[in-house]
Amino acid sequence: xxxxxxxxxxxxxxxxxxxxxxxxxxxxxxxxxxxxxxxxxxxxxxxxxxxxxxxxxxxxxxxxxxxxxxxxxxxxxxxxxxxxxxxxxxxxxxxxxxxxxxxxxxxxxxxxxxxxxxxxxxxxxxxxxxxxxxxxxxxxxxxxxxxxxxxxx
Length: 153
Hints:
Blueprint: E1 3-4, E2 7-8, E3 12-17, H1 27-43, E4 50-58, E5 61-68, H2 75-78, H3 98-108, E6 112-118, E7 122-130
Parallel strand pairs: 3-4
Antiparallel strand pairs: 1-2, 4-5, 5-7, 6-7
Helix pairs in contact: 1-3
């Protein structure tokens, strides 16, 4: 059974990777953003809900999704959930920083985060990030710095 934040989680899990893509990214920070989205999905679901992780190309970007079949988020709350200290529901744990941190990390990578949700429909969080520049072009002139691939995934 999966373990999230030290807690055994009984959910149905699905992984759907449609394309292979390369990003120039800080893998540690993107991992923190994805972890926050997965923890959020776990917090707002119960057995036998499903949590789905996915990735696909969308033009010159990669879309990474975290989708759940939980209760969903009312439209009036969606506008503020990416603000610092915003909390979706009273009584939930945490300081209300998780989604604000997700947004900051994604924007630092020249990306954007979007939500599709509604009461009774679950929630889908989508991170859109630019693809890494293509490597099949001519090499840069001698003496020019090479782009760093450190942290690429």
